[in-house]
């Protein structure tokens, strides 16, 4: 793949989120509503499971998901008040069926929503700042084959991610942080990569690694989504794990080890235009929503 650069749930406190120097790009009128014309139309596809419908999917639906142009949940059973794409009976809500879920969702998006510009795949514990995603995507052409997200490697400095199959020296975008396909990348995935048996018949749980390898075979470009200072926009960890003022302990190094780029600690962990975080569930998702969209400093009473 070619790359180019653009110029576990934990106990949390309010400070864990408040310390992050992240803010959404706000419309000129000062409201918190997204300008859906910026960056093109985005279809958000969220992987969820039946036992999470009562909390995680509902939280996504009530927070960042409402800023998508279209939000759908990929799951096995229809849930009240949620827009769902039902999986066939053969695709169960289990970890080992993630790849089948994602490929089914991408095929559905290609069939029903190909008039959209961008296709975001996220988990139900991903938090996305949609305004920042739109602004970032506005600099790219959806007719180009692009994959955007948090770039990881399965093998870095002789330390490999233990996965079944032959996936050494592979590069991919973190599934937990969420990744985005352009319209052309989606077309290539469905029409080219997904027709290749080597792409379809893969280990089932590592959907993000599979997606990276399948799109690589279709000559899709991986985009460097960091900001000008090399700070990440797509984050595969929670704000708590990223916003601490002191460097992380040496043993807490899976992100450091697998990241394709150098990982920064503390306040330099994330771009001010950060787009996504992973492992964000209640109450952290509610806190992020409050601090990003409802708390305004220096306002008159």
Automatic annotation (TrEMBL):
<keyword id="KW-0808">Transferase</keyword>
<keyword id="KW-0735">Signal-anchor</keyword>
<protein>
    <recommendedName>
        <fullName>N-acetylgalactosaminide beta-1,3-galactosyltransferase</fullName>
        <ecNumber>2.4.1.122</ecNumber>
    </recommendedName>
</protein>
<dbReference type="InterPro" id="IPR003378">
    <property type="entry name" value="Fringe-like_glycosylTrfase"/>
</dbReference>
<feature type="domain" description="Fringe-like glycosyltransferase">
    <location>
        <begin position="50"/>
        <end position="224"/>
    </location>
</feature>
<keyword id="KW-0812">Transmembrane</keyword>
<dbReference type="GO" id="GO:0000166">
    <property type="term" value="F:nucleotide binding"/>
</dbReference>
<dbReference type="Pfam" id="PF02434">
    <property type="entry name" value="Fringe"/>
</dbReference>
<dbReference type="GO" id="GO:0016020">
    <property type="term" value="C:membrane"/>
</dbReference>
<dbReference type="GO" id="GO:0016263">
    <property type="term" value="F:glycoprotein-N-acetylgalactosamine 3-beta-galactosyltransferase activity"/>
</dbReference>
<keyword id="KW-0328">Glycosyltransferase</keyword>
<dbReference type="InterPro" id="IPR026050">
    <property type="entry name" value="C1GALT1/C1GALT1_chp1"/>
</dbReference>
<comment type="pathway">
    <text>Protein modification; protein glycosylation.</text>
</comment>
<keyword id="KW-0547">Nucleotide-binding</keyword>
<comment type="similarity">
    <text>Belongs to the glycosyltransferase 31 family. Beta3-Gal-T subfamily.</text>
</comment>
<keyword id="KW-1133">Transmembrane helix</keyword>
<keyword id="KW-0472">Membrane</keyword>
């Amino acid at each position: 793949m070619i790359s180019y650069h653009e110029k576990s749930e934990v106990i949390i406190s309010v400070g864990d989120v408040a310390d992050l120097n992240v803010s959404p790009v706000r419309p000129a009128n000062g409201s918190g509503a997204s300008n859906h014309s910026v960056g093109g139309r985005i279809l958000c596809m969220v992987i969820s499971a039946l036992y999470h419908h009562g909390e995680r999917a509902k939280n996504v639906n009530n927070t960042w998901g409402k800023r998508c142009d279209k939000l759908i949940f990929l799951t096995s059973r229809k849930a009240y008040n949620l827009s769902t794409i039902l999986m066939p009976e053969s695709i169960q809500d289990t970890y080992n069926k993630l790849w089948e879920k994602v490929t089914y969702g991408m095929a559905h998006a290609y069939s029903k929503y190909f008039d959209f510009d961008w296709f975001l795949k996220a988990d139900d514990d991903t938090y996305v700042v949609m305004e920042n995603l739109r602004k970032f995507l506005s600099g790219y052409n959806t007719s180009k084959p692009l994959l955007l997200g948090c770039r990881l490697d399965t093998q870095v400095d002789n330390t490999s991610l233990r996965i079944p199959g032959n996936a050494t020296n592979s590069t991919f975008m973190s599934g937990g942080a969420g990744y985005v396909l352009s319209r052309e990348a989606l077309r290539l995935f469905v029409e080219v990569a997904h027709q290749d048996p080597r792409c379809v018949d893969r280990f089932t749980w590592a959907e993000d690694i599979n997606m990276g390898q399948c799109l690589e075979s279709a000559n899709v470009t991986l985009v460097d989504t960091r900001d000008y200072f090399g700070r990440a926009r797509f984050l595969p960890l929670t704000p708590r794990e990223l916003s601490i003022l002191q460097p992380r302990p040496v043993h807490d190094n899976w992100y450091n080890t697998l990241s394709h780029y150098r990982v920064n600690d503390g306040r330099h962990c994330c771009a001010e235009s950060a787009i996504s975080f992973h492992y964000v569930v209640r109450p952290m998702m509610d806190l992020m929503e409050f601090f990003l969209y409802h708390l305004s400093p220096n306002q008159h009473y």
